[in-house]
Write a structure and sequence with these properties.
It is a single chain. This protein is an alpha/beta fold. About 45% of the residues lie in helices and about 10% in strands. The strands form two sheets. A six-stranded parallel beta sheet has the order 5-4-1-6-7-8, with helices on both faces.
Length: about 230
């Protein structure tokens, strides 16, 4: 039986694309670079702020990015994002209602986004009361797909991997779950390319947050272990 649900944030709990892109372009502007289109920035998401800014600086320039440029870019990005992270960000349709039906589970958030804006978004969208823990990408255990932060969440909650379900839209989430030994439920309606998720044969997937409760129940009903391919 599943006891603990661990959610990704960007592309799983909330559509954060427009605000992330706006803050990346604000940082690029401070560095004297031209803005990037939304689609390009979204393709760089998933591996934390530093990687996002490194990839964006390289794409907006000559394909190179010095450490000084990256650090300045991250600082400018975070400064802008802290103030504007809720301008266009919205929870996915049906999420709030679905979370309200999942009271028997303990719930946490594990995101590669920095913790401060992550907590601000959860509070601003009215989602914070559902979660006992929120670990951001600036945690001391590492970024997904490193499983250490996931293991720390399970340890704190006193829950075994086979009693834990990680829900996310990206391959980083899927790989984290596999390395931690937990179950995984892939959200195909998020921000990450669904083809990348499906290419890694996730244990289970679903399309719409209005069907989250039923998707979790289907995972619980499966007789096989977490490495079973869908």
């Amino acid at each position: 039986m599943i006891k603990l649900l661990v959610f990704d944030l960007d592309g799983t709990l909330a559509d954060t694309r427009k605000d992330l892109a706006a803050s990346v372009n604000a940082a690029l502007s401070q560095l004297g670079s031209s803005p990037l289109p939304l689609e390009s920035i979204i393709a760089f998401l998933g591996d934390g702020a530093r990687n996002l800014l490194m990839r964006s600086i390289m794409a907006a320039g000559d394909g190179q990015a010095s450490n000084a440029e990256i650090e300045s870019g991250v600082e400018a990005f975070l400064e802008h994002y802290r103030e504007h992270c809720l301008a266009e960000t919205r929870a996915y349709p049906g999420l709030t209602e679905s979370l309200g039906r999942l009271g028997r589970f303990r719930k946490a958030v594990l995101t590669n986004k920095h913790g401060e804006p992550a907590r601000k978004i959860l509070a601003g969208l009215g989602l914070a009361p559902h979660f006992t823990q929120v670990l951001g990408g600036d945690n001391p255990y590492g970024l997904k797909p490193d499983p250490e932060a996931m293991r720390k969440i399970m340890e704190t909650e006193g829950v075994a991997p086979q009693e834990t379900l990680l829900i996310g839209d990206g391959v980083q989430d899927l790989r984290t779950a596999r390395r931690a030994g937990s179950h995984f439920l892939g959200f195909l309606g998020g921000m990450a390319p669904r083809a990348m998720m499906l290419a890694e044969h996730p244990e289970a997937v679903f399309e719409d947050m209005r069907g989250l409760v039923e998707a979790i129940a289907a995972v619980e009903a499966r007789p096989a272990g977490p490495e079973t391919k869908a």
